[in-house]
Amino acid sequence: MLQGVIFKALSGFYYVEADGGTLECRARGRLRLDGVPPLVGDTVSVAVSGPGKGVVMDILPRRNAFTRPPVANIDQLVIIASGALPVTDPFLIDRMTAAAHSRGCRAVICVNKCDMDDADALFDIYSRAGFITIRASADTGQGRDEIRSVLAGRFSALTGNSGVGKSSILNMLAPELGIATGDVSRKLGRGRHTTRHVELYRLGGDAIIADTPGFSSFDADSIGMMKRSEIQHTFPDFAPYIGKCRFDDCLHISEPGCAVRAAADSGAIHPSRRAGYERLCREAADREARKYN
Ligand SMILES: Nc1nc2c(ncn2[C@@H]2O[C@H](COP(=O)(O)OP(=O)(O)O)[C@@H](O)[C@H]2O)c(=O)[nH]1
Ligand SMILES: [Mg+2]
Ligand SMILES: [Zn+2]
User: Fold this and answer.
1) Does residue 205 carry a pLDDT above 90?
2) Same domain flag for 105 and 195
3) How far does the centroid of ligand 3 lie from the alpha carbon of residue 239, in Å?
4) What is the pTM of this model?
5) I need a surface site. Which of 131, 232, 259, 289 has the fewest CB within 10 A?
6) Residues 107, 100: contact at Cβ < 8 Å?
7) Residue 110's beta-bridge partner residues?
8) Residues whose CB is under 5 A from ligand 2 (ion)?
9) Domain count, the chain
10) How far is the CA of 125 from the centre of ligand 2 (A)?
11) Residue 70: inside a domain
12) Which-ligand-closest: CA of 160?
């Protein structure tokens, strides 16, 4: 039995780096039956079944796992956004940063396509909320050094809707990768799904990064099983005010004496972030209502 890391998942095959080579593997049936399919980033044990072939037998304990993008054990989620087509809805970013923070994972925002639109609104929301927010252009190379330093020494996954330029950013960092990129349909206002699988790339500076397929804004993952009362803790910009409300169990929606809402009223919390928080809470309330009915 060998141990290795899954660096690519494609059409039911898992490509595992082990013992200085690559094994093309299927997953043992039980892993699928248990509903825990292996993910890119997983450390796994593999039974070699032939030259260059194997079977993934077990998944070693994970630090974290995401369904969208489907990766495990990452240090940070790098959310690629854009003020040009396809324009990123800030709620999508709120959802993804919350998903990252709920799993103890850092979230970084990279506003791409600044050669077309410098996306001041997005930049303002997320830099003010305390996120590392980088302006970039895969076309002109803007932001290259800043992105490199954020990636250095870490295992990251790129995410963001299709066509924002995830694969293009990777090509900007390492042109020798030559990753296929897609065009953005003017008619639909969104990108095509050019990247159809998850794959890890090694960059200089000890950076490992996963390129992932995008998604359309409509089917972005829900933040899973997070309870309504937990969502507030995934908003770092709320942290200075939490615990200062009149009620200990304040959800910062409509309770009197709420320090978070007072901060939002004063402008210390951006209105877009407050709206994103309230929407996530409504979704969680709907989920909780469905569960008990
Ligand atoms: N003008 C401009 N176009 C870009 C930039 N980054 C990506 N694109 C274009 O956007 C389209 C989608 O890029 P792609 O990397 O495939 O997006 P992905 O789906 O997120 O991987 C392609 O036509 C790229 O050439 C950028 O910074 N500026
Ligand atoms: Mg892509
Ligand atoms: Zn409150």
Assistant:
1) no
2) yes
3) 11
4) 0.93
5) 289
6) yes
7) 80, 134
8) 166-167, 195
9) 3
10) 25
11) no
12) 1
Which pLDDT band, with edges at 50, 70 and 90, does 185 fall under?
Answer: low
DSSP 247: S
pLDDT at residue number 287: 82
In angstroms, what CA-CA distances link 8 with 101, 153, 283? Answer: 25, 20, 33
Which atom of ligand 1 is nearest to 168's Cα?
Answer: 15
Q: Does residue 69 form part of some domain?
A: no
Give the ligand at the shortest distance from the Cα of 199: 2
Q: Contact, 213 vs 162, CB < 8 A? A: yes
* 66 domain-assigned: no
C-alpha 162/C-alpha 248 separation (Å) is 41
Domain residues for the domain of 18 are 2-59
Query: CA-CA distance, 286 to 132, in Å (whole number)?
Result: 32
Distance CA 244, CA 250 (A): 10
Dist. CA 293–CA 132, nearest whole Å: 41
Question: What is the pLDDT, as a whole number, of residue 289?
Answer: 85
Contact at 8 Å (CB) between 119 and 111?
yes
Residue 218 pLDDT class (50, 70, 90 cuts): very low
Distance in angstroms (rounded) separating the CA atoms of residues 174 and 136: 15
CA dihedral 103, 171, 15, 70 (to 10 degrees): 30
Structure-token match 């709907």, residue found: 286
By most ligand atoms within 8 Å of CB, the mutation choice from 112, 164, 168 for ligand 1 is 168
Nearest residue to 6 (alpha-carbon basis) of 67, 75, 55: 55
- DSSP helix, strand, coil percent of the chain (3-state; round to 5): 30, 25, 45
Q: Residue 96 class from Cβ within 10 Å (0-12 exposed, 13-18 middle, 19+ buried)?
A: buried
Mean pLDDT of the chain: 91
| Cβ of 167 less than 6 Å from ligand 1 | yes
**10 Å Cβ neighbour count for 246?**
10
